[in-house]
């Protein structure tokens, strides 16, 4: 028997608040992270075949609330590539992309 509820997870997006400082610069936005099955996570996190940059490029699919000098910054590959030039930012975003996969929201 296949659970129909699980088929909805195929296209699910996790919304994760990001707030950190790097080099004295504050970064704060809501990340949109692609939900993936466990076997994909194992592949993505294999240190022999992946990098933090590859993890972010595959799992971070958008954001909202990203403000730069008073302007709302729309998610794009170009902006993401600019950010991924800095190892500290890349590492932080990679960790959040993986951690978000295991975050479950409790319901009352």
Describe this structure in words.
- The structure is a single chain.
- The protein has 108 residues and is of the alpha+beta class.
- The protein is built from five helices and five strands; from the N terminus they run H-E-E-H-H-E-E-E-H-H.
- The strands form two sheets. Strands 1-2-3 form a three-stranded antiparallel sheet. Strands 4-5 form a two-stranded antiparallel ribbon.
- Helix 3 packs across helix 5 (87-100).
- The longest helix is centred in the last third of the chain and has 14 residues, at 87-100.
- The model has no long low-confidence stretch (mean pLDDT 93).
| Helical stretch tally | 5
Rg calculated over all Cα atoms:
15 Å
Q: State the distance separating the first and last CA atoms.
A: 28 Å
Report the average pLDDT across residues.
93
In what range is the share of β-strand residues? Answer: 25-35%
Q: Biggest sheet: strands, sense, closure?
A: 3 strands, antiparallel
What are the secondary-structure elements, in order, as H or E? HEEHHEEEHH
Which class do the helix and strand fractions yield?
Answer: alpha+beta
The count of strands amounts to 5
Sequence of strands across the biggest β-sheet? 1-2-3
What are the key terms here?
two-stranded antiparallel ribbon, 108 residues, single chain, alpha+beta, three-stranded antiparallel sheet
Would you summarize the structure shown here?
The protein is of the alpha+beta class and 108 residues long. It contains 5 helices and 5 strands.
